[in-house]
Amino acid sequence: MYFKDKVAIITGAASGIGYAIAKQMAKEQATIIIADINFSQAQQAAENINKNNGGKAFPYEVDVRDSDAVEKLVENTIEQHHRLDYMFNNAGIAIMGEMMEMTLEQWDRLFDINVRGVIYGTHAACNVMKKQGYGHIVNTASLAGIIPSPNLGAYSGTKHAVLGICKSLRIEARAFGVKVSAICPGVIDTPMVTDSEIINEDKLVASREEIRENIQLKPYSVEKAARKIVKGVKKNKAIILITGHAHILSRMYRFFPKLSEMLGHSYHKREKNILAKK
Question: For position 179, what pLDDT does the model report?
Fold first, then answer.
């Protein structure tokens, strides 16, 4: 029971990877704060965990774009549970489409949630964990934060930022007994795959189903991903890379960047032919 009596905040925990991680940690009797902008869904997630997983889960409504609200989330957790062992900054969104077609509002929304949300959670947790002398910050990046990702370029930019923050903070925080890890999943079977915003969707010939099929990579089970993430956290891995294709593509880019670029160009060209208006 590695997580027994440990306290963890997980943002974006009402669904997807966050919820799966919460369930996995609850099996080892952790106390989980299910933090999400969708409070009713967070309540349902907490109720399900308390019924079925053996841990303790508490719903909490938070918008990670609000630094004061995130600070209050951490303060309330300390007030009620007297410690913070894990801070999972997991909340995030994706917008699919070419960067040249994106509006500034879409850019701002991506960076407000995916980058500033991580910064706010990391900053609030660091202040507490530094005083405690222990803690583990786990930020959700992506395979898109490692390799070029056509049609996910802006999203990729946010995840490169998260990964860069984690790599440097891991070195700095070690002096205070604080651990830092980055989760880098490939394609996981979550609502992000099915429900993400698509630029100029009304102008596309292809349906959402065709777009999803064109991804070509079979989405990885979110429960299996959560088990590997939790295992990686226990081992204090710097980068927790999830899915076989993520391992292959990241290594290909590392050792054969030109080949990866050519394959990405070919894939992007094929996508444009499928999705372009006729």
Answer: 98
Residue 2 lies in a domain: no
Instruction: Tell me the pairing of strands 135-140 and 95-96.
Output: unpaired
Whether 216 has a pLDDT exceeding 70, the answer reads no
Closest CA relative to residue 246, chosen from 200, 156, 204, 185: 185
Q: Rounded to two decimals, what is the model's pTM?
A: 0.91
- Domain encompassing residue 99: 7-275
User: Does the annotation mark 155 as catalytic?
Assistant: yes
How many separate domains does the chain show? 1
3-state SS, residue 158: helix
CA 190 from chain centre, in angstroms, equals: 11
Is residue 202 a part of any domain in this protein? yes
pLDDT at 278: 46
Query: Mapping DSSP to helix (H, G, I), strand (E, B) and coil, where does residue 198 land?
Result: strand
Q: What is the DSSP letter of 67?
A: H
CA separation for the pair 156, 17 (Å, rounded): 18
What phi and psi values does residue 182 have, to the nearest 5 degrees? -120, 130
Decide if 56 is inside a domain.
Answer: yes
Tell me: the pLDDT tens digits for 119-128? 999 999 999 9
**CATH number of 42's domain:** 3.40.50.720
Burial label for 40, CB within 10 Å (0-12, 13-18, 19+), is exposed
- The catalytically annotated residue of 60, 155, 220, 253 is 155
Find tokens 């290909």 and name the residue. 252
Of residues 55 and 31, which shows the higher confidence score?
A: 31
In a domain? residue 20:
yes
Q: Tokens 């204090």 identify what position? A: 236
